[in-house]
Amino acid sequence: MARPVHILPRLSDEQRSLYEALKVEIRQDIRVGVEAFERASQKLLRVRDERLYREEFSTFEEFCREILSHSKTHVNRMLAAADVIRGLIAQGETVLPDNERVARELAKYPKSERLMIWKRARQIADRSRPDYRAIRKAALEIVPVREAQKIWMGELIERLRNAKRLLTISVDFSGASEESMRDVCELLVQLEKAISELSIHAGVQLDRIQKAKRSASSSPSFPE
Fold first, then answer.
1. Residues with Cβ < 8 Å from 24, sequence gap 6 or more?
2. Is 197 domain-assigned?
C-alpha cells in the first residue's frame, strides 16, 4: 500500500539560509569535541524538528546519510548522548564525558541511574577520564546483571543487522588497485574469523538454553 504524500510548505528565505548554515556548522562541530558536539546536537534537533531539510531531502534519514555520512540510527544515538550530557549538567555534575563514544555508552542505561554510573566509573578510572569500558564495569555494579545483559545484547543484534545490510551491497572490484584488494581480502578474512568465533559461542549458549528448556519440560510435577 502506497504511503500518503504529505506536501509541506516551502522554506522561507530565512529558513533556507538557516538550513544551509546549519548543515555546514553541524559537520564542523561534530569533529571538534564534546562542547561542540553539544552545539551540533541542538542544531540537528532544529533541522529535524522544523524539517528544514524538506526542500532538499524527503526524510531526515536521507539528510543524515547524504550530509553527515551517518545513518539516522547513529545520529539518534548522538542526540541521546547529548541528552546524557545535558542531564548530568542539570544534576550538578561538573566533570563530563570527554567524548561522544562515552556519552553514548552511558545513554544506554536508565536516566535515573546515569549519574550514579558516571560517578562510579570515575572512581574506577581513578585519575583518568572514564572510557566506555569503565562505564560498563560501573553499570554492572549498579544495574541488575540481567538488565545490563539485555541492553548489550540489543546493541549486538543491532550491529549485526547493520553489518548484514552493508555486506549485501553489490560491489564492483573491476577498477580496484592491488593494494585496495589486499586490504579488502585481509579484512574479510579477519571478519570471517570473528564471525566464526561469535557463531560458535552463540551456538553453544543456544544449545544450553534449549537443553535447559527440555529438561524443565520433562521434569515430573508433583501435586502440592
1. none
2. no
Cα three-residue angle 28-33-38, rounded to 5 degrees: 80
Residue range 78-101, pLDDT digits in tens:
888 888 988 998 898 888 887 778
| Confidence (pLDDT) at 158 | 74
| Residue 113 · residue 91 · CB < 8 Å | no
Which residue positions in the chain have pLDDT lower than 70? 1-7, 30-34, 145-146, 148-149, 219-224
31: in domain: no
Structural domain includes residue 12:
no
Q: Is the pTM of this model over 0.85?
A: no
In a domain, 25, yes or no: no
**Range(s) of the domain holding residue 108:** 98-167
